[in-house]
Specification:
The complex is a heterodimer of chains A (565) and B (686).
Chain A lengths: L6 H25 L3 H4 L4 E7 L5 E4 L7 H19 L7 E4 L2 H4 L5 E10 L2 E11 L28 E5 L2 E2 L1 H9 L4 H29 L1 H24 L4 E9 L9 E10 L2 E5 L15 H15 L13 E4 L17 H19 L14 E7 L5 E6 L29 H7 L2 E8 L15 E7 L5 E6 L20 E6 L2 E3 L6 E7 L4 E5 L14 H10 L4 H8 L9
Parallel strand pairs in A: 10-11
Antiparallel strand pairs in A: 1-2, 1-5, 3-4, 3-6, 4-5, 6-7, 8-9, 9-10, 12-13, 12-16, 14-15, 15-20, 16-19, 17-18, 17-20
Chain B lengths: L3 E7 L3 E8 L5 E7 L6 H9 L8 E7 L2 H7 L6 E6 L5 H4 L23 E4 L2 E2 L5 E3 L3 H13 L4 E5 L8 H13 L5 E3 H4 L5 H31 L5 E5 L5 E3 H6 L7 H16 L5 E6 L4 E7 L2 E2 L1 E8 L2 E8 L2 E3 L5 E5 L5 E7 L18 H7 L18 H16 L3 H23 L11 E5 L7 H8 L3 E4 L6 H8 L2 E12 L5 H21 L6 E12 L6 E4 L3 E3 L2 E3 L3 H16 L8 E13 L15 H4 E9 L2 E9 L8 E3 L2 E5 L2 E5 L3 E5 L5 E5 L3
Parallel strand pairs in B: 1-4, 4-11, 5-6, 5-9, 9-10, 13-21, 21-22, 30-32
Antiparallel strand pairs in B: 1-2, 2-3, 7-8, 11-12, 13-14, 14-15, 14-18, 16-17, 19-20, 22-35, 23-28, 24-25, 24-28, 26-27, 29-30, 31-34, 32-33, 34-35
Helix pairs in contact in B: 2-7, 4-5, 9-14, 10-11, 10-12, 11-12, 12-13
The chains are: A alpha+beta (565), B alpha+beta (686).
């Protein structure tokens, strides 16, 4: 703990520094070329500790999963710079190696030391999901990858800039390793712009308040976050709660993979022990250790939404990731499908936490991003790739039913409008609808999932790739709530509709003009016993068509029929 | 000849009236309580307070919150939707967002019941090809079903109708034949722009408001006419322009930010007249602080807003940034020991602790009361007899002082400092973050509480000065009288610039101009000038965010000469370079939307007519009060603000009081009354 800081200056500085990170986010969102950053906000910025790399301040508008994972990226650069031994003002490191920095290879990380009066003060970092970074499949979601090299080009931490001079050699290497150099160049420029802005704003802030005061504030904010977390944990009863859930398969071998957690609260501390989780697998549902630790943070922040976004929060929490498990797979294990695995980690943490904090936890959300790509060639030979993620229902909570058709808990991404997709690609959506009977029953039911049916209009046909989950294990309810419906993917062939042998994962599905694919996504799990749901709420869902009369009676009993109007 | 113009702004608490006599140039203001649920009572009694004979009035312009309130309180009409097969849930599915990033809680119910969203066979593709002609029998059956279900308005929402409106137009014609009232609209009539959720949402919310708002406006119009009014009745739109009452009844969704937009228009006008064309306005209410930036006299427009989660209105609006820091915002210390302001608010009921209406948690206003900045004996608004200083002090000590180890006064100052820093953050957001240097800008507070915080805005953001308008409480009503008449149009083009069909583009421009000018012609108002402006939303192929490109177009005698491909390309390059600093080599340029604005410039009035006549500093002096600044009590001079003469110089610390506003001049600042009666607050040392 460094110099004392008065509580009022602290409150003022907390807001100022958050604003700097937010402004860095906004700078990249505006400048980025690729819609994954520009529209889906799959990016993040923040300030990180000069020695430990711990997250000090992070922007509010970036992707939630990055809040925890960025400190690993900064730490990787700190280690690399120590090895190189010549860190200086104006250096910028760049890399995408997911085993060092977490998440997947699509995420390009830029880390820049920030110097004040010749001394290292902190690090600034920017991460953004690039549209394409080489590998076997455009867009880098390769459900059949068995190592990182099949997923993407792997870049370890290297100096993109030395003492303020951009190393154009590095840019040349990057641009030669992407199918979309124009998009990559636009995103890179945006990330560099965000870092420049961060430096400028930090200069202003330190000029105004002095380095000692700002440093004291940063320390105090970490301590305060820790105090807050401890206070929240103290309010919960001591105990140990376990939960296990499964991934359908790894895309290579069709065997379920267990994700298990034991959540223990003792006084003002918490342990999350993932012992019992399946071992490292062949396919891309492995994740690297940094991703696993960061995911624990995402789950905790959803349970305690008012906690600040800094590393102090994690001090009272011990996350135990077993060695050899798919949650700590070493290089070069494939990790491209990390989203599915971390969604399942969040699900088991919620399910376990429901025992400790039933009024704070929401039931499981739909639990899969359903990365679907449909691609082909137009008559003029021009290739096209439509790549998007699809939504589902959120879990019910103590206060309300779950949200119908929401985005994944690890993301804040919105879905592109159907009309934008139809204008850009030769497809037509026959259905863009809510899916009846997809929500888990409960006092507060889960949100309803969705049905998307997409027809190929192009005479040359198309090929479809899907990376999804929850095809065999449904999202769970909590506190007595019921499970949601399974994820169902269907595709049309000459002899009718088919489902993939691996449930929700498949490569290279050939579609002719006029044939369609359909996604029926899960809803969210229910909250509380279905018998506690008001019969008029059940009748309302039946009238709206969210619930069939048969399922209504099966889940809730016959009393809703008296409320029919 | 009648020659009076009246602006009426109906707010949550008060209805404000601004009367301008065009012949004499004299202005009068009035403030009466807003009546609920029917606001027309307050509207008419407010006008009646200043004008006996409505036949002497040429124009009444209304800034209304009727639409906003109906949206926020979900009090619109029962409506139905007829839509493309497979798409009835678009309104409910939104863009797959969620209410809050963290927590995953909360749900959403759209304004149209799922049972009243009916699908019919029809389909247009993205290139405008009709794949399935509309089944008009199915449309009629659906319409009859909705009529039977007592729906009062209906919206026809078809896929890709922006690209070809044929199916929609046929369907809407069929519905109009059998629908019992005029409340029938289609998405291509309301917003012919790509993005189905935004277009459907805007059209559905418009339908949701139509019965309510058109009824309200027609009640007002009838009452005005019954009172002898024979002039023109107009409504302020969210874009800061006015429209005639028939247009407003047809397009009520365009009134979503009517009142606040009028305030910003007036603020820009006052500031420009005072010699400061760059200004940031700050409207401090009970629960929020609304900020808007005006550069070189021009307000910023944003293309859309969310009235609430999932309730998107896409039509140009004056950009207003809102943060949850108002007078009623509650101050609290979290478990980590950090002082927070809001987002919880005590609003105006029960209001701050000092109101004595049941709230026991301290608010920003309570801090102002405890520090002597607000006169406890004469609370503004006139509803309360006096304010309870001791209760406010006790609450601050209990909830903020004790947890932070501060006495009540230090805790009250801490509350103000944190609240001010949040407000300053909002000012920084709209200026620094958008590339505007705040030193060039003046701060203009309006609403009841903003003028207590202007010193802090100068200090925290580095603004040069604050301008407090002479009547900050009636700014929106004044804006009604000042605003130009304006219509905005949009059309999605969705074409590469290379080989663009400029004739087709010109035809859209011509239609916009013809419709817009016809609307100006129909108005009984006189215009000093008519202006047309055209912008194209453009981007490089593959880029999502568009740049707004102003294109050169000549309009002579109402006939449009469209720009050439080369002219558009040049305009794009200029705009793109200004936004991103560089162009993209070999990038393919695309035109996404055409936006046209047709404006009739209304005559200006001389703000100097509002200036004080005579008066003296001595006569305005009301004595002193102890006010707490920077850790000590200061003997602070009090003045009757409206009695101060032009040119008066008031060194801080001082407080200028008027019926609905308190102006605080902190130590080290000096106030000056300018030729228009505004108070300029600047740093005392040059």
């Amino acid at each position: 703990m460094s110099a004392e800081i008065d509580p009022i200056t602290l409150a003022v500085l907390a807001g100022r520094m958050e604003q700097i990170a937010d402004e860095m986010d906004a700078t990249l969102f505006r400048a980025a070329f690729n819609p994954i950053i520009a529209e889906a906000h799959d990016a993040s910025h923040g300030l990180y500790h000069a020695v430990s790399g711990d997250t000090l301040v992070q922007g509010k508008s970036g992707l939630p999963i990055f809040v925890g994972v960025m400190s690993f990226a900064v730490k990787a650069v700190i280690d690399k710079a120590a090895e190189n031994g010549d860190l200086q003002d104006g250096d910028i490191y760049i890399f995408n190696d997911a085993h060092l920095g977490g998440t997947h290879l699509s995420d390009m990380r830029l880390v820049r030391p920030y110097y004040h009066e010749g001394k290292l003060f902190c690090y600034l970092a920017s991460v953004g999901h690039w549209h394409d970074v080489g590998g076997a499949v455009p867009g880098n979601y390769n459900p059949a990858a068995t190592d990182a090299f099949q997923e993407a080009f792997v870049l370890p931490p290297v100096r993109l800039a030395r003492a303020g001079t951009i190393q154009t050699d590095i840019i040349d290497i990057l641009m030669r390793n992407t199918r979309l150099p124009q998009s990559a160049q636009g995103d890179l420029n945006g990330q560099l712009g965000a870092l420049d802005l961060g430096v400028k704003r930090m200069d202003e802030l330190l000029g105004e308040y002095g380095a000692d005061t700002v440093r004291a504030a940063l320390d105090a904010l970490q301590d305060r976050a820790e105090t807050l977390m401890r206070a929240e944990l103290s309010d919960l009863p001591d105990g140990r709660w376990e939960a296990t859930d499964y991934l359908d398969n790894d895309g290579i071998t069709d065997t379920p993979l267990a994700i298990k957690v034991a959540l223990e609260i003792k006084g003002d501390t918490m342990t999350l022990d993932f012992d019992g989780t399946a071992p490292r697998c062949a396919g891309p549902v492995n994740i690297a250790l940094p991703t696993a630790v960061a995911t624990a943070y995402v789950a905790i922040k959803h349970i305690f939404p008012s906690l600040p976004a800094n590393a102090g929060v994690m001090r009272p929490i011990d996350v135990k990731i077993p060695e050899g498990s798919l949650l700590s797979a070493p290089f070069p294990a494939p990790v491209g499908g990390y989203t599915e695995t971390i969604l399942r980690m969040i699900d088991v943490i919620f399910t376990a936490a429901a025992g400790a904090a039933p009024d704070r936890v929401v039931a499981n959300a739909y639990g899969t991003i359903n990365a679907l790509s449909i691609s082909g060639k137009r008559d003029n030979g021009q290739p096209w790739v439509m790549f998007s993620f699809y939504g589902g229902g959120h879990g019910g909570s103590f206060e309300s039913d779950g949200l119908n058709h929401g985005n994944a808990p690890i993301s804040t991404a919105t879905i592109p409008p159907m009309e934008i997709l139809e204008a850009a690609y030769p497809v037509m959506f026959k259905q863009w609808a809510l899916r009846p009977d997809s929500a888990g029953a409960g006092m507060h039911r889960g949100g309803v999932g969705a049905t998307y049916e997409i027809e190929v209009l192009e005479g040359n046909g198309a090929k479809a790739f899907l990376f999804g989950e929850r095809g065999r294990y449904a999202p769970h309810g909590v506190v007595g709530g019921g499970d949601a419906a399974l994820n169902v993917f269907s595709y049309e062939q000459d002899d009718g509709w088919h489902h993939p042998p691996m449930a929700s994962k498949m490569v290279g599905i050939s579609l002719k003009q006029g044939q369609s694919v359909r996604l029926d996504t899960p809803g969210g799990g229910g909250y509380g016993a279905p018998s506690d749901r008001a019969p008029e709420a059940v009748a309302r869902d039946v009238a709206a068509g969210f619930l069939s009369p048969e399922k209504a009676t099966k889940d809730y009993g016959p009393s809703w029929q008296e409320e029919r109007t | 000849m009648s020659s009076r113009m009246i602006g009426v702004d109906v707010g949550g608490t008060f209805t404000d009236i601004f009367v301008l006599d065009e012949t004499s140039g004299m202005a009068q203001v009035a403030k009466v309580p807003t009546t609920r649920p029917d606001q027309s009572g307050g509207f008419l009694s407010g006008i009646g307070a200043r004008v006996d004979d409505l036949s002497t009035v040429s124009v009444v312009v209304h800034g209304t919150t009727a639409g906003t309130n109906a949206l926020l309180e979900r009090k619109g009409a029962k409506i139905g939707v007829i839509t493309t097969q497979g798409l009835r849930d678009v309104l409910e599915m939104r863009r797959r967002d969620r209410p809050r990033t963290w927590g995953l809680r909360g749900d959403f119910t759209p304004v149209v019941d799922r049972a009243h969203r009916l699908e019919v066979p029809e389909r247009t593709l993205a290139d405008g090809t009709i794949r399935t002609p509309v089944d008009l029998d199915a449309v009629r059956t659906a319409a009859r079903q909705l009529i039977k279900a007592d729906c009062l308005a209906v919206a026809v929402l078809f896929a890709n109708a922006y690209a070809n409106d044929e199916n929609e137009a046929k369907a809407v014609a069929a519905v109009r034949e059998i629908w019992p009232n005029a409340h029938v609209s289609s998405s291509s009539e309301i917003l012919p722009e790509i993005r189905e959720f935004e277009r459907f949402s805007t059209t559905a919310l418009n339908a949701y408001l139509q019965p309510e708002v058109s009824g309200y406006l027609s009640r007002l119009e009838t009452a005005l006419k019954d009172g002898g009014f024979a002039g023109e009745f107009m409504i302020v739109q969210s874009n800061g322009g006015v429209m005639d009452v028939d247009t407003a009844a047809r397009l009520p969704v365009r009134t979503a930010l009517s009142g606040p937009a009028a305030g910003v228009i007036a603020a820009g006008y006052i500031a420009q007249a005072a010699g400061f064309p760059d200004v940031i306005t700050g409207d401090m209410g009970g629960t929020s602080f609304d900020v808007s930036l005006i550069a070189k006299g021009q307000s910023m427009l944003s293309p859309q807003t969310s009235i609430d989660f999932g309730m998107v209105v896409r039509s140009p609006m004056i950009e207003i940034t809102t943060i949850g820091a108002g007078g009623g915002s509650i101050a609290w210390v979290d478990k980590g020991g950090l002082l927070n302001i809001g987002p919880e608010s005590a609003g105006s009921t029960p209001g701050p602790v000092a109101y004595g209406q049941g709230n026991t948690r301290p608010t920003v206003t309570d801090a102002n009361v405890v520090l002597g900045r607000i006169d406890p004996e004469n609370p503004i608004g006139g509803k309360l007899e006096r304010l309870d200083v001791e209760a406010a002090k006790a609450a601050i000590l209990e909830h903020v002082g004790k947890p932070l180890g501060l006495d009540a006064l230090a805790a009250a100052e801490a509350i103000l400092r944190v609240a001010n820093s949040r407000m300053a953050g909002a000012l920084r957001l709209v200026s620094i973050e958008r590339g505007f240097d705040p030193k060039r800008f003046a701060f203009m507070p309006f609403g009841g509480g903003g003028a207590l915080h202007s010193g802090a805005m100068l200090a925290d953001v580095g603004l040069a000065r604050a301008i407090v308008p002479r009547y900050p409480g009636v700014t929106s009503a004044m804006g009604c009288v000042i605003a130009d008449m304006r219509q905005d149009f949009v059309q999605t083009i969705n074409a590469m610039l290379d080989g663009i069909n400029t004739d087709a583009l010109g035809a859209h421009m011509q239609r916009h101009v013809s419709d817009g000018l016809a609307m100006l012609d129909a108005a009984q108002t006189t215009f000093e000038a008519r202006e047309t402006a055209f912008t194209l939303d453009m981007a490089y192929l593959g880029q999502t965010h568009t740049v707004s490109v102003s294109v050169p177009v000549t309009v002579s005698d109402g006939i449009v000469t469209p720009p050439s491909e080369a002219q558009i390309g040049e305009a794009f390059d200029t705009a793109y370079r200004a936004t991103y600093g560089r162009l993209l080599n070999n990038g393919t340029r695309r035109v996404i939307n055409l936006r046209s604005a047709i404006t009739g410039k209304r005559p200006r009035f001389d703000l100097a007519t509002l200036a004080p006549v005579g008066g003296s500093v001595e006569a305005a002096y009301k004595g002193t009060r102890q006010v707490y600044f920077g850790g000590a009590w200061h003997e602070t001079a009090l003045y009757d603000r409206l009695a101060l003469p032009v040119g008066a110089i008031i060194p801080g610390p001082a407080i200028l009081e008027q019926p609905d506003t308190t102006v605080l001049i902190e130590p080290d600042l000096v106030g000056r009354v300018d030729a228009f009666g505004n108070t300029l607050i600047e740093r005392a040392d040059p």
